[in-house]
Amino acid sequence: GAVVSQHPSRVICKSGTSVKIECRSLDFQATTMFWYRQFPKQSLMLMATSNEGSKATYEQGVEKDKFLINHASLTLSTLTVTSAHPEDSSFYICSASLGDYTFGSGTRLTVV
Amino acid sequence: DAKTTQPPSMDCAEGRAANLPCNHSTISGNEYVYWYRQIHSQGPQYIIHGLKNNETNEMASLIITEDRKSSTLILPHATLRDTAVYYCIVRETNSGYALNFGKGTSLLVTP
After folding, report:
1. Cβ count near B107 (within 10 Å)
2. How deeply is A17 buried, as exposed, middle or buried, from its count of CB atoms within 10 A (0-12, 13-18, 19+)?
3. pLDDT digit string (tens) for A22-73?
4. Nearest-CA neighbor of B18 among B4, B37, B33, B34?
5. Which of A58, B24, B44, B91 has its Cβ near the most Cβ atoms within 10 Å?
6. Are B46 and A101 a contacting pair at CB < 8 A?
7. Measured between alpha carbons, how far is B46 from B34 in angstroms, rounded to an integer?
8. What is the mean pLDDT of residues A61-90?
9. Could A103 and B45 be called an inter-chain contact, meaning their C-beta atoms sit closer than 8 Å?
10. Residues 6+ apart with CB under 8 A from A20
11. Whether pLDDT at B83 is above 90
12. For A92, which residue in chain B has the nearest alpha carbon?
């Protein structure tokens, strides 16, 4: 079946620095990928839709200048959390669709 | 825009069948019922989906009522590794839009 690889699985960074998270579709091409954020004991919240070759579409309340999304190829989308603060600490998950939706294993971001 | 309603939590004894209900009374004719689960600190995992007929695969069975306003996910022989949050989602297939997750049902399988 379709596989989505997400890296890194966990990262700790200092407040004010930037962190890049990669999401790759391993055995299929994904013109669209999705980025979610999940806080403890809460459900997944859609942050943005990443479109290959064009600008991402952000959900209401998500700062596009803070969460930079790049989808430069059909198999790779990246999410960069810029100037990270402790409140950005969360579980970030990407997803791509090949008929059914496949999810990455998630990235646990801790900002200290 | 929660289109589904699920109980927040359920318990099930190991080896017994786990029956997880979902109400989706506003489902439209071209919307499928999808089930995903999320084990702690992992990405969601696809389980099964269906339109109106009952479906079965190696993981579970999906029973959809004739009026399609509710469904039940059945794990026939629950194991401890089935402890997870189970999400019922209605969605047009191949719509190109993201899946929107509700709160799901937290299933605890006990020894």
Report:
1. 21
2. exposed
3. 999 998 898 899 999 999 999 999 999 998 888 999 999 999 999 999 998 9
4. B37
5. B44
6. yes
7. 8
8. 95
9. yes
10. A78, A79, A80
11. yes
12. B43
